[in-house]
Amino acid sequence: VATWLSEAHLRHIQAHGSRDFPHECCGILLGTAKGDEKRVLRTVAMTNTHEDGHERRYLISPLEMLRVEKEARAEGLLILGTYHSHPNHPAVPSDYDREWAWPWYTYIILSVMGGIPAEMTAWTLLDDRSSFQEEPIHLMDAPPEAGS
Ligand SMILES: [Zn+2]
Q1: In sequence order, what E strands does 58-105 have?
Q2: pLDDT confidence tier of residue 62, bands split at 50, 70 and 90
Q3: C-alpha of residue 60 to centroid of ligand 1, in Å
């Protein structure tokens, strides 16, 4: 499985991570999937509604999720996964991330060190939910709509 991102989306996720630092930011990846290739065509910034000060955890509100699902369907796009930041922490999934993840979806994690975007990684959960597998992020040329 590989995830394709445009430079505009990459920058959108990085900007969101910096803006919300030292809190975790989160958002949704919309796009198309063909075989093992996922193409992100839109990144949608979400509000982190987790109660624990959002520093190590993120939670997307079901209402916001519903709205994005509707938009995606109207545009013929799939929800491919989510992105979130790890403030002052490496771009490696936490136990919490694994607990809340679903198979098939792509989880992009951006490390933000001192407010500066650092490493970005992508992960999918194994079907038996035992662990995450890292998957490559490829940059694609055509910069589609960068999202909100
Ligand atoms: Zn995390």
Answers
A1: 78-87
A2: confident
A3: 13
